[in-house]
Amino acid sequence: MGGHGARRLRQRGAALLDLLIGAAAALVIFAFLVSLLHTLVLASASRHALMLARSQSDQLTERMRSEAASAWSISVPASDVNGDGNADGHEIDFGTEDATRARYSWCYFFNVNAQTVTRYTLAPGASPQPGPVYSQITAFSAQAYPASAISQPSSALYDPLFTGSTVTSVSYQLPDGSVAGNAFVDVTLGAAGTSRSVLLATGVAPTQFTVIVQYTPPP
Q: pLDDT tens digits for 168-191?
């Protein structure tokens, strides 16, 4: 009798041990699945953030390039929309005229703390009006170069195509105080671990060059 009872006790103990082992294994598998799901969620969020940041930087560079084509002036002002120094080029200004020849201007301002670039509409005597905001921009810097820089080997804009050429730099101040001419502005920005650069120049501002075309009028 005692032998039979001991045997049943051992069987119950073995069953309990198997149950505990099975529960522990299930707990380990559950923890692994939770960890895997967490990793997948983080990877998905990181991938989404990467795509968003690159999309924002693409939109920003394309908009600035498009606006440069019709701008009368593109410059890096001495101070930004807040009145702070702009020696690091965290703001770039644009200016042009509308169909009524009325002047208006706008700028792109980089907030390093918020990692955003905001487009502001500027008007004399009025507060800058914020417009579109480009987020997840980690770096933004604009630097102006005279047109002659493309023929100077020591310049960051040097182009061997212009070696030995005389490139005349033209710069003049417009009535609103902005600077026009044939200068270049190189904008470098960073987003999601990538860096890109866009070279901007006015597309319509006069530069003191005149092209005279001779033709024979129709009879």
A: 777 777 777 777 777 889 999 988
